[in-house]
Design brief:
Helix 2 packs across helix 3. This protein is an alpha+beta fold. Strand 8 and strand 9 form a beta hairpin. The protein contains 3 helices and 12 strands. Belongs to the TRAFAC class translation factor GTPase superfamily. Classic translation factor GTPase family. EF-Tu/EF-1A subfamily. One of its GO terms (cellular component) is cytosol.
Length: about 200
């Protein structure tokens, strides 16, 4: 989806059409279907200024309407990604912070499964495994009843201090993940003639 910004600076509609044709040609040069891609023109600045003056519904402001049109095009043209909701819950912890009076929040992207308020989860990795309960789920400052695979969420957890959890750990359905400190692997290292290492890892390598 293409948004042609600063349309308020152009008085000639034919000029906007010419710009759209040029962008279509550019997209086709990179193997995108230029003729099929939706185009929406508008003014992000004027739409923002209109909204800052007070909430706007569709039909209240010309430039805000263009943003509504843009989001409708995104919803209609871009397919929703498939979410891996059939498997057990798993989320890697990206950040941790405390909310005064509420508790500790772990943020990250849910890799798989579904999580609901009240669910019991385990905090796995780096330290001894801990069990806790989910007391809140938020996404983009909105409270949710559940989060699912693909959502970037903040999870409020009960009875866990900020020092007990850190980036690199995972939150998981109890009994589904076990941490390991050692593992066996086969590694192929690119040689000098393949654009890889020029020096050995250690003496005798």
């Amino acid at each position: 989806v293409v948004f042609l910004n600063k349309a308020d600076q152009v008085d000639d509609e034919e000029l906007l059409e010419l710009v759209e044709l040029e962008v279509q040609e550019l997209l086709e040069n990179y193997d995108f279907p230029g003729d099929d891609i939706p185009f929406v023109s508008g003014s992000a600045l004027l739409a923002l200024q209109a909204v800052e003056g007070g909430p706007k519904a569709k039909g209240d402001d010309k430039w805000v309407d263009r943003i509504f049109d843009l989001m409708e095009s995104v919803d209609n043209y871009i397919p929703a990604p498939e979410r891996d909701t059939e498997k057990t819950f798993l989320m890697a912890v990206e950040d941790v912070f405390s909310i005064t009076g509420r508790g500790t929040v772990a943020t990250g992207r849910i890799e798989r499964g579904i999580l609901k308020i009240g669910d019991t989860i385990e905090i796995v990795g780096l330290k001894d495994t801990q069990t806790t309960t989910v007391t809140g789920i938020e996404m983009f400052q909105k409270t949710l009843d559940e989060g699912m695979a693909g959502d970037n969420v903040g999870i409020l957890i009960r009875g866990v201090q900020k020092t007990d959890i850190e980036r690199g750990m995972v939150l998981a359905q109890p009994g589904t993940i076990s941490p390991h400190k050692k593992f066996e692997a086969e590694v192929y290292v690119l040689g000098k003639d393949e654009g890889g290492r020029h020096t050995p890892f250690f003496t005798g390598y």
